[in-house]
Each structure stands twice: as C-alpha cells, then as structure tokens.
Recover the amino acids of this structure.
C-alpha cells in the first residue's frame, strides 16, 4: 500500500488529532469507507458474523461502526487520508485491535431484581 507522502497531517497532540477527526475531509472519507464496506464490520464479516450499523449484538447493545487506520495514524500520518488504509470495524473489534480493554468481556451484573428473569 502506498500512501501520499506529500500529505502532512499533524497528529502530534491530542488536540491536533481531535482537529483531524472533526475535519470535514475526514468525516466525508469516513462515510465513504463505511459505505464501501457495506455498513459492516470487516473483522466480524471475516469470521462469519454479521455486524451491521444499527443492529444489536448478542449482549443487546447497539452496534456502532468505526473506521480504523490499518497503518497507525501516529506512525504513518501520510496515510491518514488514504481510503485504502481504512477499514470499517465495530466498536468491539476496534477496541480489541488497539488493546483497549474497556469493552465488556462478561455479562453485566444484575442491579435490580426485575432486570433479569427470575425463575
């Protein structure tokens, strides 16, 4: 994959990255990538699961799609706007890809007696 070496995207600070991710250019490209991927998580699809935008996963949570940079933004800023360096992932897969363990790995605990069927 070759990226545009002339494209200079500032990603040095959190503020700079926020400015990039809120830019109209990124938002348009993000929408294009999600559409090209048929509104599906590409990792789930490769494993034979269907994770489409707006559907619900097995935990009953709404599936949220995100766009992942295959070559990391921080290490390859020249690839930031290369649509071939992007893929659509659901939030769970995106978190796993970046080793963010803030996703649920087990069912949430019961808070109230009426939350779950009591037999």
């Amino acid at each position: 994959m070759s990226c545009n070496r002339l494209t200079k995207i500032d990603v040095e600070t959190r503020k700079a990255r926020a400015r990039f991710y809120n830019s109209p250019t990124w938002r348009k490209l993000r929408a294009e990538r999600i559409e090209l991927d048929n509104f599906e998580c590409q990792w789930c699809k490769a494993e034979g699961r269907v994770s489409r935008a707006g559907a619900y996963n097995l935990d009953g949570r709404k599936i949220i799609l995100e766009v992942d940079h295959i070559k990391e933004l921080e290490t390859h800023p020249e690839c930031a706007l290369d649509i071939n360096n992007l893929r659509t992932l659901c939030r769970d897969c995106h978190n796993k890809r970046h080793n963010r363990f803030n996703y649920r790995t087990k069912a949430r605990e019961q808070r109230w007696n009426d939350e779950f069927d009591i037999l």
The chain has a mean pLDDT of 84.
